[in-house]
Design brief:
Length: about 210
């Protein structure tokens, strides 16, 4: 299952906070060679604040193999801070019921049979988290073909693509009801509920 935690309750999840930072270092710094802030093989940035919520997929050894970070748009977030020009068809959101999803990554060393389920589970958990917290949509920046592969309908692209950290990416608006990748969940037998609710992370606790 996918676990959700913030800085406030990260102590209840062992080293998950550290483990997700190590995965981000592996994906963004080592493999993509991006100049992201890092320390002792852990990637971090200015959006790792008490407002951020981390959704993580952990293996049997409790190592994080997939992560997605959620940040409320009432706080500073990546699209607004770095790439506001990508948001061309809507005003930049700043609302309690719209959050940004960012720093999404999956460990490519995981066996393919398992790895193919991690991203759909992260999206499904995002939908569940949004439903629990009255969040109507998420925004973010990614490669169009990647998100379209999992959610071919329901995604609203907010403008043209541009080169973002070496990739052609665009800003998106993803309504909560279109976040769960239904076809992939059916194909891989992903259950309706994948978000662990013990302890549940709600907005007031995030």
């Amino acid at each position: 299952m996918i676990e959700a935690f913030s800085l406030k309750n990260a102590h209840l999840f062992g080293d998950a906070l550290v483990s997700q930072a190590r995965l981000r270092y592996l994906v963004f710094v080592e493999r993509r060679m991006l100049e992201h802030p890092h320390y002792e093989d852990m990637e971090y940035d200015e959006f790792d604040t008490p407002a951020a919520v981390y959704l993580v997929w952990r293996d049997d050894l409790q190592t994080v193999r997939g992560v997605a970070r959620l940040v409320p748009t009432t706080m500073p977030y990546m699209l607004r801070s770095y790439w506001p020009y990508l948001c061309q068809t809507r005003p930049l959101p700043q609302a309690e019921d719209v959050w940004e999803i960012n720093r999404v990554c999956v460990d490519r060393t995981v066996a393919p049979k398992i790895r193919r389920c991690i991203f759909p589970e992260l999206l499904s958990a995002t939908a569940e988290f949004c439903a629990l917290n009255g969040i109507r949509a998420t925004v973010g920046v990614t490669r169009k073909h990647l998100l379209n592969h999992f959610n071919p309908t329901g995604i609203e692209w907010l403008g043209e693509t541009a080169e973002i950290e070496g990739e052609q990416e665009a800003a998106f608006w993803m309504p909560r009801e279109w976040t769960r990748p239904r076809a992939h969940c059916e194909r891989y037998g992903i259950p309706q509920r994948v978000l662990s609710l013990e302890p549940v992370v709600r907005r007031a606790a995030a």
